[in-house]
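Chapter review. Work through the record for beta-glucosidase before attempting the end-of-chapter questions.
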Amino acid sequence: MVSGLLLTGAVLAPAGATAAPETFWPLYQNPYVPVQLRVHDLMSRMSLDDKIGQMVQAERQAVTPQQAADLRLGSILSGGGSVPTPNTPAAWADMYDAYQKAAVSTPLGIPTLYGVDAVHGHNNVYGATIFPHNVGLGAAHDPKLVEKIGKVTASEVRSTGPTWDFAPCLCVSRDDRWGRAYESFGETPQDAIDNATIINGLQGRSLKAKGSVLATAKHYVGDGGTTGGDDQGNTEISEAELRKIHLPPFQEAIKRGAGSVMISFSSWNGKKAHGHRYLITDVLKKELRFSGLVVSDWNGVHQLNGNNDDLTADEVRESVNAGIDLFMEPYDAPKFISLLRAEVDAGRVSQARLDDANRRILTKKFESGLFEKPYADRSLQKDFGGAEHRAVAREAVRKSQVLLKNEGALPLKKGSKVFVAGKNADDIGNQSGGWTITWQGSSGPITTGTTILQGIQQVGGPRTKVTYDREGDGVDGSYDVAVAVVGETPYAEGEGDRPNGLKLDAEDLSTIAKLKATGVPVVVVTVSGRPLDITSELGGWNALLAAWLPGTEGAGVADVLFGDHRPSGKLTFSWAESFDQLPINVGDGKKALFPYGYGLTYPKT
Ligand code: GLC
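Structure tokens for beta-glucosidase:
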């Protein structure tokens, strides 16, 4: 008897249960049995190939459901923009269920763990609620709201099937030149620690609870500290600095029960994190006692020999023995499996290492309830992208706005004549940024929502006369105010590295110049993933509002522009006075244009 359970051949429901006993056989299929017993029983039935397959994840485009099952793959992912046609919740659920059906039809019936990057809502899916990127959420200083965002995101993800979210990024971005700065909550570890509440939102009260997904603390460790903000570059700092700046968010994530950790592409003092046994096994697993699963990043193992080429046996051995448990091998799953099998047969990777990895992976699968409920929870689709979810996003947009300058043009007056211009005024793709519908994101009407211009029109109401021209053509002195919505266009990861400057582009400068020429007060709204180099232009602007990357609910920007909600955001990134100052971070003695923690509001009326 174990904890009141009968562990006979036909294992029964809890002893003393009055209902007719169900029969669960084999043991690991019994949901009433403690997870560790289920894991032990299942692993005792697994072959070497079963165990190796469990440690490998492939991209959905590379394997059919049956091929994934034949390889005994433990996991499938949709990379950024890897979506079914049509890109709808129903089609996602059908796709997901097909992989799951094939997986549970294998002899041991181990369900697959399907992962997606839902980094600001379920951003791959058309019509999903897209939240502000982390750069804006950090400025909102509302961890409870961020937890709620996690909960809404998890619900929309689970409604389409996947039970694993490769989020949150708990990176501490120390250099604005980094293309992933917007995935960071701020330049101090405290910003990531404060907002690690999103993990609780994503994972719910338990992984098997309705609408919960497995969260991923990423990217371990020091991804935001590379020299020059070089994505996937080299973080050249002491261990003391690494432990002071980049490790604390992972300690917080572990405290909050994050079920997985993703390894960073970057290096620490010249050694790739994907091969770093000290960081992964000695620090993360032993010192920090992380008991979840450790996953590699996209072909991250392929970089270990110094170039991002074909996978080698050395790279497989080094990364497995470093302590990574599950390998994101989008298009090389079969090769990874055969190389790892050879390393095990040669005694260069131990059975104990395979067992550690499988124990961690299977524990999360049992905890997620996948053996009992492997399929998409379509009942959640009724709320997908709905008004209630979008209201949460709009609140986050409002709270993330940071007012940096105001000589009286803000708040806009309802009933006034407002001219709106700029490439980011009426473009939901630009205001959502990278990781939206596609990996890199893109300009244009890529999904449903409200642009900032539409928000201005809605919030301004019928009495406010709003004229729009992207380039600013037609503006004249008859307007009460001119609003230029400018800044960056979408990018992700290294595509967003800006080693040569962060100034506004020629189109933006031309648009603002036209508005300024009329003598009408000019309000500039920056839509960007980071502070921009605007010092030389700022003098001619009456007001400046940093909107960051607000996502689909652009009306939240208008809520602040018209004063329906007074600006409350505070910078979590020092705003450099000049590009040459970079990196600039609070406490480093450099004088910022707008310091960390800065943010104005409107006078109380
Ligand atoms: C990417 C990113 C990582 C993401 C993964 C899967 O390269 O580095 O954040 O989770 O691949 O899309």
